[in-house]
Design a protein that fits this description.
The structure is a homodimer of 455-residue chains. Chain A is an alpha+beta fold and 455 residues long. Chain A contains 16 helices and 16 strands. In chain A, strands 13-10-12-11-15-16-14 form a seven-stranded antiparallel β-sheet, sandwiched between helices. A five-stranded antiparallel β-sheet of chain A has the order 5-6-9-7-8. In chain A, a hairpin with a 4-residue loop joins strand 5 and strand 6. The radius of gyration of chain A is 23 Å and the shape is globular. The mean pLDDT of chain A is 96.
Chain lengths: 455, 455
């Protein structure tokens, strides 16, 4: 038995260490599916102290750790490819504390997003972050990646709702950060450093999150002729509605979605579609859209008149990722400011001409500038190696366009393994250097999530 | 001429350096009025590069800098007491950029809060942070102190609206942080470090801030018999209204306010008062409060029926600070979670019995747990030295209670000089040590705001 396994055996009982091949594969990868999983073992701590023990051990005897949540990431941030010990948080899955006056809930890292959503609902409250992966993503991972999702246009990123964290730093210290307070300016807010650091600075053990009043969600699906109309509609709705989400689907994206959905698409054909959620009265949504039609009479639209119909309408946006998965698309999760979306869109269309073998399938959270630029390889693209080479070229070109338009190459899915080369080449040297020094402070021996983000 | 002044003369023209005694006093202090101002000079940069030059010079020839905004702080964070060079940002006061689709405005650090508020209004938008000091506080200072104010219960702290910063670090590097994006997970969000760091890590040169749709503000003033009813009302309103602010005034606070206001107080006497702002229809506010009266019939209330009346009602809360200023109160800006406010309140009442010479005047942003615990020294308290000693004792006792209830000794006014002893003694050693290491990274020679916060 390896000395690392022997030492882990002193912390964890047998049922809390897995080393079978199938488990190593299962826990060694996320949804990127392009990195070969090769962890040494998986351990399942039950409490903060066990997390601390394994981090301290890693510092003492020199192994590396991949913190692991629901592994729903798309950037390889949770992949273990080099004999690391995966620290899965899935058995730390209790909702520890809740107060209705404070509207604060304290969750262990392994609580599923969907579990928290249901819990909030049972208290007549609402967890403001809406993720497609709610059924499998975990709160710890959400915090570690500063999750965004569909409703960031209204509620911002998860960072905005984190009021406290318990973290084990890479140095093995337990840090209690934040105090569940909305107003707290007692020194630097070091808690912010861990949010979105993708498990490279510390392991999130629990998070205290603020919940909100449940919105009164009204849903509409609209079809528009030109991309500029989409942005006009967005500005118009910003002025007149309380937008919860403003999701974009290209015609190509809806065409793909049709593969997953047996019923007919409820609108006549258009070039661009918007799935809109408004918080308020259906009457208001109707009135505002009625006004919009007088400006843009060629808009087609359908408003959900029941909860069932709202779910059906939203499925057209939600199932796109699943619909294209089998084609193994090149996925680029990027963001630009809404005001440059139009120019960015034009550049993407030009790029699509240069890569005629690839089909551009564009969708995403356009209300916050976050586009999911997906490219499907054509069947005629030829040899595997050619496709792979083209994929790399195309990805670089997309990222270059993002940089040209002042955007972010990682909007909501983080950097992980996938984007780290581009991260360091596209970020100011002084900022990269600072970030690395911060990592050295918190994880001096580099035991946490090796090879990810800046390392 | 001192070598420092001679060197500054090479960067700044004569009209951009002040050394007259009256100027040194004016720019050397904030609103705490208890630290003797003694800066060496005041300089007024006009651009980021001039800020960088003065920081680099400080590193080269060894002087220290106090970054300076509107100096409306109450913790001494902007006081210059030891021959520092004050870098006043007041001449960098342009609104540089605005986009209506992005709802982003980029302001230089010296823009007044009120100027930004008016600018937002002119664009039919709204700056969500509402500060009593809006007429004199500046955006740079607001960011450096992570300003809170009346509407944090709805909009959170300023941190939530910062989408980009230009900062000159203590090492003299210009850092462009954030990209005006709502979703951006490209590496660690180092921008967060500077927000609320009180000028100890870098000098904020400009900030890109997000604006929101203007709320439809409805105002009510309510009187209640018991403190617990205040909290019940808060929970009730959270459930049924969109609360913009939920401000508390004790009977003693309203009694003080009456000194400033010639008209009669519009409610019958009660023990506790709440000034409430709701975003929505007046009708909704009326209906919700009507329901509340059926539960708590001894509540008295008045709803503003005009903008004028709303201003008049709000003045009862706003003028409390001014009304008590001449008594030189001990001011404790603290926060606890709303759920422990009741127990904290009881402890404060007990403490008031122990310090019978002092009058407790309690008010603040109770909706976010932030209480301004003010104590007025009695006229009979005796000798200056006794008062001063008692003041220290009383302050320590308040902070101890805050710690006991898991709260923050600095809620919205920061640590500055005033609370640094208590900050380090009440914070985990590992966190203090980390914070100091972060400061060493960004300001290796300790040139920025010496003696403040952790130093």
């Amino acid at each position: 038995m390896s000395p690392v396994l022997a030492a882990l055996g002193k912390i964890f009982q047998d049922e809390s260490i897995l080393t079978e091949a199938a488990d190593l594969i299962h826990y060694g990868k996320d949804r990127t599916d392009q990195y070969e999983p090769a962890p040494l073992a998986i351990v399942f701590p039950r409490c903060v102290e066990e997390v601390q023990q394994v981090v301290r051990l890693a510092n003492q005897i020199g192994f590396r750790i991949v913190p692991s949540g629901g592994r729903t990431g798309l950037s390889g941030g949770a992949c273990a490819t080099r004999g690391e010990v995966v620290v899965s948080m899935e058995r730390m899955n209790r909702i520890v504390d809740f107060d209705p006056l404070d509207r604060l809930v304290r969750c262990e890292a392994g609580v599923l997003t969907a579990t928290l959503q249901s819990f909030a609902e049972s208290k007549r409250l609402f967890f403001p972050i809406d993720l497609a992966s709610a059924g499998s993503s975990q709160i710890g991972g959400n915090v570690a990646t500063n999750a965004g999702g569909n409703r960031a246009v209204c509620y911002g990123m998860l960072r905005q709702w984190v009021r406290g964290l318990t973290v084990v730093s890479g140095a093995g210290e337990i840090l209690y950060l934040g105090k569940g307070l909305k107003k707290n300016n007692t020194g630097y807010d070091l808690m912010q450093l861990f949010i979105g650091s993708e498990g490279t600075l510390g392991i999130i053990c629990d998070a205290t999150l603020e919940l909100v009043s449940p919105p009164n969600i009204q849903v509409a699906l609209l079809g528009l002729k030109a991309f500029d109309q989409v942005l006009e509609l967005f500005q118009y709705c910003q002025e007149h509605l309380r937008i919860l989400s403003f999701e974009y689907c290209s015609a190509a994206a809806i065409e793909q979605a049709q593969k997953e959905i047996s019923s007919h698409f409820p609108l006549e054909a258009a070039a661009h579609y918007v799935l809109l959620e408004h918080d308020g009265l259906r009457r208001t949504l109707e009135d505002v859209l009625q006004q919009w039609y007088t400006r843009q009479p060629d808009t087609c639209a359908v408003l959900a008149s029941s909860r069932r119909q709202a779910i059906d309408l939203k499925r057209w946006r939600e199932c796109i990722s699943t619909a294209i998965a089998s084609a193994v698309p090149l996925k680029c999760d990027v963001a630009v400011r809404p005001s440059v979306l139009s120019a960015f869109f034009e550049d993407l269309e030009k790029l699509a001409e240069d890569f005629a073998d690839w089909q551009l399938v564009l969708f995403g959270h356009i209300g916050d500038g976050n586009l999911h630029v997906n490219w499907l390889p054509g069947k005629e693209s030829g040899h595997q190696q050619v496709v792979s080479h083209q994929r790399q070229l195309l990805q670089d070109r997309v990222y270059e366009l993002v940089i040209k338009h002042g955007g972010a190459i990682a909007a909501e899915h983080g950097v992980g393994l996938l984007k780290k080369t581009f991260l360091t080449s596209s970020t100011d040297g002084s900022i990269v250097s600072l970030a690395r020094q911060v990592a050295d402070l918190l994880d001096p021996n580099g035991v946490l999530n090796p090879g990810k983000v800046y390392s």
